[in-house]
Amino acid sequence: MAEQQLALRVEDVTKRFPGVLANNDINFDLEKGEIHALLGENGAGKTTLMNIIYGLYKPDDGKITINGEEVVLHDPNDAIRRGIGMVHQHFMLVPVMTVTENVMLGNEKTTTNFLHMLAPLDRKRIAREITQLADQHNLKVDPSAYVRDLPVGTQQRVEIIKALHRGAEILILDEPTAVLTPQEADELFDIMRSLTQKGKSIIFITHKLKEVLAIADRITVLRGGQVVGSAIPSETSEHELASMMVGRDVLLEVEKSEAMPGDVVLDVTDLIAEDDLGHQVVRGVSFEVRAGEILGVAGVQGNGQREMVEALTGLRRAVGGHITLLGENITRSQPRHITDIGSAHVPEDRHKHGLVLPFTVADNLVLNAYHVEPFSKQFFVNRAAIDANADRLVQEFDVRTPSIETPASSLSGGNQQKTIVARELSHATVKLLIVNQPTRGLDVGSIEFIHKRIVQARDNGVAVLLISAELDEIMGLADRIAVMYSGRIVATVPAEGADRNRLGLLMAGAEVSSEINTLM
Amino acid sequence: MTTSVSPLSRLGHNLRQTLGNILIPILAILTSLVVVAGVIALSGANPLEGFMGLWDGAFGDGDAVANTIIKTTPYIFAGLALTIAFRGGMFNIGVEGQFFVGSIIATLIGYALRLPPVIHLIVAILGGAIGGGLWGAIPGWLKARTGANEVITTIMTNYIILRIINWLISPNGGPMRNPARPLPQTPEVYPTAYLPWIDFSKINFPWVNLSWLASATGSLHWGSILALIMAVIVFVLLWRTILGFEIRTVGISPTAARYAGVNVERTMVTTMALSGAMAGIGGAVQVLALTHYFSTGFNVGYGFDSIAVAMLGGLHPAGVVLAAVLFGAMDAGATIMQMRTGVPIDIVTIIQGLVLMFVAADLIVRQIYRIRVKPADGTTPVSATVQTAGESG
Hints:
By secondary structure, chain A is an alpha/beta fold. In chain A, 32% of the residues lie in helices and 25% in strands.
């Protein structure tokens, strides 16, 4: 194709970090008006490449051409001036400011140039410009709204507007759907299409295969810092892409036999819990989990799942309702007591709760069992037993670590998660397994492994409560699916034959009617 | 991937880690000495002579060594107290006050009770430990109960205890005053509560020749031995006991500790109580071994200076002992240095301050000596840099 058709061209770019070749001789180009998906696992080099394009890193080798002109980007301001805009996975917005203020932040316009830094801000002008951009690209947003009051999907639009307002012609969207419901994601895709129709070009970074196939014009796959392949959606499949990403054949669907539910293990009635600010965010939740089944709780993040799990595990005091574990009332019990009865918990935040990062892998593998035999006796811990346990679990759960003495902070996210899963599943007496977002941010290989282990636990008669924002994960693993919205379970349906679209609507709060509830 | 590690390579790993851990403190000390050499030179004296004087005063002969050991001892106790607290995530600024509580309680037991020898001593030291422990537990309890920042509350408890002690020993009707003296000081403790001197003429280790210390007989007390024993006890406590595991877990991540079933609030109080008790023993030892009474202006500053000792020692008992020796030696050698070369004693304070600065802001040292990877992660620079390379999202 003609050179001037290309919005961006990256040639032979190499970037080394001490001990790592993060980008190895990468070639990548972006046509005008194109959505080019960049697919790859964590550590594949996507973020490094984007940071190079955005001027945050300087490549050791290779060249970058924007609109046919070879450029050297010294910092993000350089990149912005040349029409590159980035929407980060974690929004860079100030919650207590309005949309207008956020858009002008760092690029403030004043009503007069007299005493520039002290002159009044020209909010009206910016607001007008925002409305113009919004109309042009179908990005509905109220310029005077405070960002903290906006739903996540709208906040993302503000980020896009912010980039457009700075004159972005090339948009980099980093994992933009991670925080969205399926419907919100569809809306985002509409926006992306309308942007490209108006001549903008988009680099779409993701690890979700379905989305890539749905929206991208072209796909480039990175692995180990190298481009390992490219494809056009119409000529490839999820399976092929996944294999390219991982470098071997992978199982996307978990193989599992039919569940054989036994006795009720966990019984929750009318559970009410508050968040840290005292808002009631779990508002009368009831469900039960039986031995040998996986109950999946689907829902967009922030609908009370975290507080519910914390109440179930004793980390948060329930305000009302009853929790019964194996016949014992644990509504007011301490975490240790709940663990001792036979509950295991893979927490949502592996850095905040799941691991003590500076501790060794060995110590982390006994984080909630160090006080019992054989890991300790009377007052003293038994190093030999702790190390033997670590040697065994590291092998069994394929935790890739230089040694069991390595601090957990040095492991990759996938191996950190495997460490937690290993610890939680290795309790001899586990009867209930609560797993919250077990595979967030993990590579396909680790996801496959952890999914297998969860199903295996179920087959061994463990009652599993799975909470995940990834609908695919819920649909792939669960035997029954409960949808949580705004602190309530709005529906519970068998996974067999569950309709993806309808679950998505339920997650978004639509269609909350008795008709659905009767499906139980 | 290595899943099973041979004991030998594990030892090698530990050695490398230890070397990595002591590298920064050593470089911090060297850098401080270089800077101070410049300061001495600016003041017109010869830095080399100054350092020689400092060295002779600290290690020149048996008496100097004994003096250094005596000066080192309170730093060890206070440094260990801070090690326990810092490892438990409690920034205990109150060691100074807890040290005083230990002194004053031990003094009280020493002169107000009549007990047989040895027993009197043990009761006095235990009293100091309990007093310091209770005094330390108060800010711990306040934090556990109300979330009150322990930095603020320990500073306040320091002021409170200073005022209480001033009243206790005030010559104008203080209940612990020495009626025979017009100065603010307590009566002397009974000799039954004295912490005795080590008599080197009676000690005959077959494997060590201590005769060179014989002149020091009558100037080294058993408190120094107790300090070393305490260092071992603190190591065992922190790294070999259930309680130590809990203290360190709470210290790094209270949220993970709660998840793991630790009673975080109770552990906070326990940590502060143990820290305070260690400081209290240190205070008791100073009175029972050296002065035998308590007066104002006595042993001021160990609680604060030992923050530097604990940091320099890497919050590890062995490191604390070494760092305490450094500080003790500087205290001991400063006088000789000043007498011989005219370099003022305060230079020592500058060195101590610089050392603390370079250890606390270790980035400066890393920049000067171009040390890249943190020693704690030094075993796996590859994955450590992968993370810093920003591929975590």
